[in-house]
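Why Glycoside hydrolase family 95 protein? Reviewers of the renewal asked for a concrete example.
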Amino acid sequence: MTKACGRTSIRRRTFLAGTGASLLAGSATASSVRPAAKSKNAGLALWYDRPAERWVEALPVGNGRVAAMVFGRVAQERLTLNEGTLWAGSPYDPVNPDALAALPEVRRLIAEERFKDAMDLASKTMMAKPLSQMPYGTAGDVLLDFVGHSFAGGYRRSLDLSEAVAQTAFRANGGTITREVFASEPDQVIVVRLTATGGAKLAFDVGYRHPKKAEYDWRPKDGIVTREKTDPVDWNFREDLDRAGRPSDLHVAPDGAKSLLITGRNIESAGIPAGLQYAVRIAAQGDGRIEAIGDVLSVRGARAVTLVIAAATSFVSPARVDADPVAPVRQRTNAALTKRYAALRRDHIAAHRRLFDRFSITLGKPSTEAVPTDQRIVRDGESLAALYVQYARYLMISSSRGTGQPANLQGIWNDGLNPPWGSKYTINANTQMNYWPVDPANLAECYEPLIRMVEELAVSGAHTAKVMYGARGWVAHHNTDLWRASAPIDGPYWGMWPMGAAWLCTALWDHYDYTRDPALLKRLYPLMKGASLFFVDALVEDPKGRGLVTSPSISPENAHHPDVTICAGPAMDRQILRDLFAATLEAHALSKDPDTGFATVLADKGARLPKDRIGAQGQLQEWLDDWDVLAPEQQHRHVSHLYGVFPSTQINVRDTPDLIAAAKVTLNKRGDLSTGWATAWRICLWARMGEGERAYSVLKGLLSPLRSYPNLFDAHPPFQIDGNFGGSTGIIEMIVQSWGGEVRILPALPKVWADGRIEGLRVRGGAELSLAWQNGELSSLTVKGPPSSEIKIRYRDTLETLRLDSAGKAVWS
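Here is what the prediction returned.
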């Protein structure tokens, strides 16, 4: 950097760089980043020197619709299967018809500060029927039981992130046994390739175990959720052999000479009957003798075998479950077996890399110690930061893609019929957090399943708005499921929060802000208008004259007095509505909506929302009244009222320093370490406030055995994937931020990352950055953006504007 007029300045030069511009500091030579080679992320892997004993040690593969967890066991390989639409229940309407009549009385009780009475009445009259939603579940286990394995050593299992291939290799029976597993998006199957070299041959049986209930590790938040195993490993343990106790409607039978067909149904839950059929087909090809015998595939005397596994359900839409699941699994497995294994693998890797290789990241000095990933977590987890970002990108590609469902509370992976919190879509924080890294990490396509979910949820949400609130538009509360239920669940303590639709819409608007895609705007505006219309009708006057408020509502899952959450107008509601109304008005103008009356009303409603408040302790108030000191949980996991800091930009270091100071008081009181996802949110908040060392300190807690399982899944505990996605977002926020019409370079860089590089990072406005830094100083910056656009770049105390003309030339001024 050169000095100009007493301030740091980016050298003002113009470079031609395709459709963008390259800005280099000091005397460095101008050049653009070269197109990435196919292998630019080669070597990125999780690896281990022992098999997985627990599900949270297994390695995930997925293609956005079907997925598996790979255990890498020697004597018996276990693949836990998932299909994204295999949820419990069937289409149902949970809306409580008594809600509308009770609503005025609930509001009156809240206005009189009779909060416990309001909660009791809401519990009786306003909650969903049934009170819980449907859980996501596993599609069962494929078990490969090996005959006569004599393990000899050399064990290694790994997950190559750049290839999306899980591999297990070891010496046995005088040779080497190698297994590769991947979930192919082009062929829509899970592929398992087994080979034997030297004196070894393959002899195994392939069977299926029906879905069952699982046990989860619910350790206290301060307990260690992983451990280093010091006792000898029994490489040939077969603890998963049992296939007994099948449901009566499960059928496993040969489907031709070299395949098995499994058919079954989902489960009933909370009184909602089972309504989905599902099918799994396992087909085999290879040398040796392969035949279906009863309920297993028998392989003997083989050197190379390819298994292809397909899964499907009868799900069509949240209102229809009449598809045939058998035909697609037969078609997909048969089609896959017409291709050689090398072609299956090549096509899979190419499709994966089209997304994965857009982005690369290097932070600090790479670890030179060759130790397994689980040991790195224990010894020095923060050295995994760059790998953690890429792992999150891998998990997103694997769990939210194409025509599949969006990433749920566990992405797409699940090992039982009773997952924690139903593995639903928790839309008071967790679902939105799942998608925080998608745009900056250059994975815009992965948003598509969430957009479709919101479009479907808007249909059920309109019914809920009309029946429960007598309002136009649409509403959703704090959870939804495959069936797009939108009524409040679990009880008013958790569920009486009407902001789910609004926050989903502001998240989708952020996605639009990164893409600026007119076709996307056309899809989003009706959703945003509908969500805004609900609050045009549902907002009420605060009895103390402070403006328009939501009532009834809560500040998600946090009590302001013992056992009482219900209230009117909490800070998070007001912040979300400010974002929703402002974004809807902008979308209204861009869409040229002739409904000018709607815009006038919405602007008026937005102007009457109470502003954020600073309490007597100097904290950002969570509620309209200064109740923060009375809250029973002073270190509550949720930091809902800091939504305005992140993911929103309403409270920021440039425009609202007093509110930022208050937010820091709040965050210090809440503490650094909480559940996995809540710890991840804290990283993002400290980064957004420019506190790089504090953010890094919290990150070290996330990348530790307290908050990361051996396979790097977030240890809530138990597993929730939002910690992975939120933590990776926090890492990116420490390096580049995009808000307030500016791109901020190295705004919260910790000292430990004095050197680093990122390529392919996206920012708002449709631009892409690649940058490098040395000794904490920016050394190169490449910007690509739409022709004839402007991009404001702030580096330290300098703000300058990059203009790209129609020829791709950039002029700094």
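Residues 1-37, 220-231, 807-813 have pLDDT under 50 and may be disordered. This is the kind of structural detail the renewal will allow us to pursue systematically.
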